[in-house]
Amino acid sequence: MTSNDSGGAVLRGGPAFVVSGPGRRATDTPDAAGRILGLDAARGLAILGMLAAHTLHSDGDAFYDGRSSIVFAVLAGISLGLMTGGADGLPRENRARARLSVAIRALLLIALGLGLWLLDTDVAIILDSYGFLFLLCLPLLFANRWVLAGVAAACALGGPIIIVALVAVTDPSGAIPVSSDDVAAVPRGWLAGYYPAPVWLGYVVAGLFLARSGITRSFTLAVMVAGGALVAALGYAISSAVGDPVIAHTDTTAEAVSSGALAVALIGLLVAALSRIRNRAVTLAMKPLTAAGSMPLSIYTAQILVLAILALVHENSGEYSPEQSTALFVSLALGSLAFGTLWSIRFAQGPLEWLFARVTLRRPWRSQPTP
Q1: What is the pLDDT of residues 145-164, one digit of tens each?
Q2: Which residues, including other chains, have CB under 8 Å from residue 320's CB and lie 6 or more apart?
Q3: Taking the model in full, what pTM does it have?
């Protein structure tokens, strides 16, 4: 891999690239390698937020609890959209290959996620759930935008009801009891666990909708920021006013709408802001965050491995004092940012991102997209 290698979207493995459709030029981006820096920055923040949820003491409803993983889910949908043609979508003759690539990537995520669950870190691993959501998205990859909007709305409104029904049916006293050591516990976890698909599919599909709407277009970004902020503010305010405030990881309609809209607004703000920055000093200052965000799979996996090692070394690692948990967060956060920065000096993709690109039939060493 050369220093000019840009890795790649579906046609090369990097989820922050835009691949143009037939007869259209690729969307302009502020980075010479073709990355959308705002998306990388959003991923970087999401990674740090999830790390905070994994390490810091809180009541389970700190500002980073739940919301960070929702941002990551919306970004996953945007990545799917960019990997499959951006606003225009891929031509029909290329869609089967794209679906195969996404399917293989999904299976790899499931395998990696289940492997990380075996480390017993007390962290709710998200990767296998993302893989399952990617599989569910296969029929929707090239659907009409308004079909995507309808699916996202249905997940927000009907998803919580489906989850309650699934939990009741699979409860030990339910019609189809599923125990924690049952093989069926894995798919049950995807459907009604920490990141239940009936609701979380909506976040991914919302991201796919944004990608199909042109994630770097000024109008799209304006609607994301203004509309997302307004819906989030109203959602949180109304929920509190009626005595049922939004609580992280409850997977209610209020959380799906409010926190989902907040994620959309944050992503839109970062993409809009960083696409307009031409100051080299500011770009360099953002480099650690965007570098880490360009390799989220590698960074996330490394963090889980470190937490697993600490769990083996220290018997009471799950019971850190507030001071110890803060030190752990700061150490892992700085380590993640430093690794991402240093790695990006020589390589265009993180180690796992590069591996996934190779296995999913892409050619990440090619520096330019195929016309």
Answers
A1: 999 999 999 999 999 999 99
A2: 55, 57, 328
A3: 0.88
The token duo for 238 is 């109304």
Residue 3 maps to a domain? no
CB 235 within 8 A of CB 261: yes
Q: How many domains does the chain have?
A: 1
* Residue with tokens 């809009």, as numbered in its chain: 272
Tokens of 278: 């031409």
**DSSP conformation class of 87:** T
Q: Which domain holds residue 144?
A: 37-359
Residue range 201-253, pLDDT digits in tens: 999 999 999 999 999 999 999 999 999 999 999 999 999 999 999 999 999 99
Of 245, 317, 331, 319, which is closest to residue 51 (Cα–Cα)? 331
Gap between the Cα atoms of 162 and 191, Å rounded: 9
Domain-embedded: residue 134: yes
Distance of alpha carbon 106 from alpha carbon 80, whole angstroms: 11
